[in-house]
C-alpha cells in the first residue's frame, strides 16, 4: 500500500541560504550554481549538535525536497557534490528525522532526474539504504521512510541500463537490496515518503 505524501513546507526565515525557485536554479550560471551548492553542502555537513542546528538541517532538506521535483534541478543536484554529502548524512546523522528527510531528498532526486552521470555514487547509496533497512527491520516507520528511496534508485539504475547500448557497463546492485525489498513487500510494508 502506498500512502499519500504530506506536502512539504519550509520556513523562509530560518533558511540560511537564498531560496531560489527551481526555475532560477536550473538557469543559473556555473559560478552562481557552485556558490549555492557550496553553501548547501556546508550547512548539511555542519557537525553542530544543537537542536537549532538539527532544525536548520531539516528546514534545508524540506527546501531541497521542493526543488528536487524539477527535472533539470534534480539532474544537476544528483550529479553534484551534494549527493555524496546526502549519503554521508544518511550514514552519520544522529537524528533519525534528518536521515528520513535525506532519504526523501535522495528518492526525489532519483525519481525526477533525467540523466545519471557516470560518477554518481548511486551504488553506495543503495548499499547504505539496504544496510539501514536491515539493521532497523523491526522499525516499520523507518522502513516506510527508507524503502521509497531504495526503490527509486533501483528503478533509476534499471532505466539507465535500458538506455545503454553496451549492457556490460552496468552499475553494481547488491543482491541484498533486492532481497530486502522483496522481504518488505512480502510483509506488506506501507510505503510513503516521510
From TrEMBL:
Q: Which GO terms describe its molecular function?
A: kinase activity
Q: Which residues form a coiled coil?
A: none
Keyword line: Kinase, Transferase
Q: What is the top-level taxon of the source organism? A: Eukaryota
Q: Which Gene3D superfamilies match?
A: Leucine-rich Repeat Variant (1.25.10.10)
UniProt xrefs under InterPro entries: ARM-like, ARM-type_fold, ULK4
Signal peptide (UniProt feature, chain positions): none
Task: Determine if Amino-acid biosynthesis is one of this entry's keywords.
Answer: no
The protein's name: ULK4 kinase
Quote the gene name from the UniProt entry.
Answer: Ulk4_0
